[in-house]
Design brief:
By secondary structure, the chain is α+β, with helices and mostly antiparallel strands. The chain has a single domain, classed as Aminopeptidase (3-Layer(aba) Sandwich), CATH 3.40.630. The chain is about 30% helix and about 30% strand. It contains five helices and seven strands, in the order H-E-H-H-E-E-E-H-E-H-E-E. The longest helix is centred in the first third of the chain and has 17 residues.
Length: about 190
Amino acid sequence: MAGRGRAERGRRSEILAAANVSMRIDPLRPSDWGDVRRIFLEGIASGNATFETEAPDWETWDRAHRADARLIARDADAVASAKTPFSVLGWAALTRVSQRRAYDGVAEVSVYVAAAARGKGVGTALLEELVRASEAAGVWTLQAGIFPENAASIAIHEACGFRRVGLRERIGRLNGVWRDVVLLERRSNVVGG
């Protein structure tokens, strides 16, 4: 098991080195909210990341997300400047899918990457670390609902062990337009037997 973890970290380092990204994954703190919110707003603006149309305030976001699995990817080399004003490259977090006790080990995944950092392995690194954090927290099933148009996000989830469960047709409306969502899930090999 330890060898597998080293191999995964090595692969992630190779991906990031190829993309010239030096980053570290840290726990998300309240002081990171400004950057997290900015990246969330970029996702909202894309029209293919979420049904949300505005970012909540910190208190609302904090209540909605599990405290035991919140991560940010930080550019380890960034110095705030006009050229690189932000060091946070992306974030990932989990939400409960139900208040029922039977579903305590099931969580929904959120992964957002800053527009300037997309395609550089940040999303994969965040999701891999989120999987590890979720298992450490006793989560046995992760699920994600992704717009079919967001092919990059679907590919990242599948690369991290998620499988397509189905297509939820016309599940919700965004700006007056009915949208489909691809439902993916990942069952832990470590938690829940």
